[in-house]
Design brief:
The complex is a heterodimer of chains A (250) and B (315). By secondary structure, chain A is mainly alpha-helical. Chain A has helices at 2-23, 26-49, 54-82, 86-91, 97-126, 133-158, 162-178, 194-199, 201-212, 220-244. Chain A has one domain (2-244). Chain A is 79% helix and 0% strand. Chain A is globular and about 55 Å long. Chain B has helices at residues 47-54, 76-80, 98-109, 113-126, 142-155, 172-187, 199-205, 223-229, 244-247, 266-279, 290-298, 306-314, and strands at residues 3-16, 19-32, 36-40, 62-67, 70-71, 83-86, 160-164, 191-196, 208-213, 216-221, 234-239, 251-256, 259-264, 282-287. In chain B, the strands form three sheets. Chain B has a six-stranded mixed sheet, sandwiched between helices. Chain B is globular, with a radius of gyration of 22 Å. The chains are: A mainly alpha (250), B alpha/beta (315). Chain A binds chain B through residues 4, 7-8, 10-12, 14-15, 19-20, 23-24, 83-86, 88-96, 248-250, and chain B through 52, 55-59, 76-77, 80-81, 83-93, 95-96, 100, 104-105, 107-112, 136, 152-153, 156, 158, 162.
Chain lengths: 250, 315
């Protein structure tokens, strides 16, 4: 059974990850555009205002790159469900919903790997990792990946057409990447926006990543709190996906 | 004989615009194992809804359905182990080749790579895709793409296959290669559930037929069994020699530009033949076609769209 699941996941990763990348390498550049645009702006603003924002841009780029997996997953799954009817073929097969989503989420990760590699290399120049900081960053990004994938899958099962994803994605982006201090310290936000920012799991993820990379000071208690909130958010979204996603239509 | 599919008073209602719309109304149908069932009906008759419930993609509103002895609602995991489906209007990934599509679909379902390769070879050959097996789907014609979809499910080890209008958009030669693949699958004792609005296809392929209209099952069984159910089992066409008044008493009469067509019984058909010979009128006679049966049972041509009718009625 376990072997069959792994075979299914490998097949889905090949179909939705390796093969399209091999046939159309421009997909790789596409995933790099947003995080590098932000990094570019931060570098310019930093140069003009005599501040070094690049470390924040690198940490934010990592979080945004992983978070974009959720957005891509949502678009792909909506397209496969509504246009290609591939999801219906998967439903009527021995492949379970969890296996399909894991395969799809891993295949989106394939697209993010080049971006993650570049940001990891940049972080070696711009960050000052604290003790075990690298592991904390990886763990945080894994939790963001789970959270984003569960959110993407759940939304995709409710969307009727891929055009609806074009409407939903920017709204989610504002809530998860613009207001939350992914690209800057939370102290840069007006005080009244803090409660809104703390509603987004990405605020906690960014705080933890920035702290682990030594970009801003972080206490052990703050770090543990960030981690617990992230675990809670990932688990909550996972349960919502498990219970509420419409694998089978009603 | 054991049933591959058994539905009992199955209903499905969709809600939109604050109203409930019944897509299926108490459909009870049984399909024996190893049969090719052709579910025929006009667009909007409920064929796809029925197939989607059977293939566990859609929940019914009420009633019961079992596939190979497993309930589609309570035991869907067991059902899914034994089925494969080609949904209506489904399309393959354009960045893959037909060979890759079949191979990865099979490994996704749990086949070993070796088995998947062997099955892909066989299915691609059967469907005449050998020449294009390594061409990207994006460069193939619509017909070849559809055949690649058929190859995916045919290559699987599923005991029951659901094909929702599998030959739409195919040319006659390609349709026949799909038909042959379907027949071959049935010879391996697999059960095929086919929806179509091509009556020639249903007639050529199906060992059993089911007629659905406005969500209701109007008839089901073998072709011969359904033929016996119609009021007029013979079709007579006469050109000249008769007036409308003379023919009216024999059955259902239709004027076809230059000749009369009558759906009638055996005795009446003999009588018209005799008279036609005496009067030197041209005549053709034979048992009713599936299209005629459909017309008699449903009361409308299969090409008439049910959804259009509903829209007109609502306008």
């Amino acid at each position: 059974m376990q072997e069959r699941k792994l075979s299914s996941i490998w097949s889905i990763v090949s179909m939705n990850g390796f093969l399209p990348l091999r046939r159309q390498p421009l997909f790789l550049i596409n995933t790099l555009t947003s995080p590098f645009s932000f990094l570019f702006f931060l570098a310019i603003v930093g140069a003009v205002s005599n501040h070094d924002f690049i470390p924040y841009g690198v940490a934010g780029g990592m979080v945004l790159t992983v978070l974009s997996i959720g957005t891509s997953l949502q678009s792909d799954m909506t397209h496969y469900k509504a246009d290609l009817k591939f999801q219906e073929m998967v439903v009527a097969s021995p492949v379970r919903a969890g296996t399909y989503v894991t395969g799809m989420a891993l295949s989106e990760l394939v697209f993010s790997l080049p971006g993650m590699t570049v940001f990891t290399v940049l972080s070696l120049f711009y960050a000052h990792y604290v003790f075990l900081g690298g592991l904390v960053v990886v763990a945080s990004l894994v939790l963001v990946w789970i959270f984003a994938s569960a959110l993407g899958f759940t939304l995709a099962t409710y969307l009727a057409d891929v055009r609806e994803t074009f409407m939903i994605s920017p709204i989610i982006s504002i809530f998860l990447t613009v207001v939350p201090p992914v690209y800057y310290p939370i102290t840069a936000l007006p005080r009244w926006l803090w409660p809104v920012a703390y509603l987004a799991p990405t605020t906690w993820a960014a705080d933890l990543v920035q702290g682990a990379m030594g970009i801003k000071p972080i206490t052990l208690i703050e770090g543990v709190t960030d981690g617990l909130v992230l675990v809670f958010a990932a688990a909550l979204l996972f349960v919502i996906a498990w219970k509420k996603a419409q694998w089978r239509e009603t | 004989m054991a049933s591959a599919l058994k539905s009992t008073t199955l209903t499905k209602a969709y809600r939109w615009g604050g109203k409930s719309h019944e897509a299926l109304r108490g459909v009870s149908l049984e399909v024996p194992k190893g049969a090719i069932l052709g579910l025929i009906g006009r667009n909007g008759a409920g064929k796809t809804t029925f197939l989607r419930i059977a293939s566990t993609s859609l929940l019914p509103t009420s009633g019961k359905m079992e596939i190979l002895g497993h309930d589609v609602v309570d035991d869907c995991v067991a059902v899914r182990e034994q089925i494969a489906v080609i949904p209506q209007e489904s399309r393959p990934f354009y960045w893959m080749t037909p060979r890759e599509l079949v191979f990865y679909y099979l490994t996704m379902r749990g086949h070993t790579q070796k088995d998947a390769r062997a099955r892909a070879d066989e299915a691609l050959g059967e469907l005449g895709l050998g020449e294009w097996e390594n061409t990207l789907v994006g460069r193939l014609s619509g017909g070849l793409r559809r055949r690649a979809m058929v190859a995916m499910v045919m290559a699987s080890d599923a005991e029951m296959l659901f094909l929702d209008e599998p030959t739409t958009g195919l040319d006659p030669v390609a349709r026949r290669s799909v038909w042959e693949a379907v027949r071959k699958a049935a010879r391996k004792n697999r059960t095929i559930f086919l929806t179509t609005h091509y009556l020639d296809e249903a007639e050529a392929l199906s060992s059993r037929l089911a007629l659905l209209d406005k969500g209701q099952l109007l008839a089901s069984g073998t072709r011969e069994f359904i033929s016996q159910k119609v009021k007029h089992p013979y079709r007579v066409v006469v050109e000249g020699g008769f007036t409308r008044g003379e023919l009216e008493g024999y059955g259902d009469l239709t004027w076809l530009e230059d000749r009369w067509m009558i759906f009638t019984g055996e005795k009446e058909a003999r009588e018209i033949s005799r008279l036609a010979l005496e009067r030197g009128a041209r005549l053709s006679l034979g048992p009713v076609s599936l299209e005629d049966i459909f017309l008699q049972i449903v009361g409308k041509d299969i090409t008439k769209d049910e959804t259009e009718e509903a829209e007109v009625a609502g306008a």
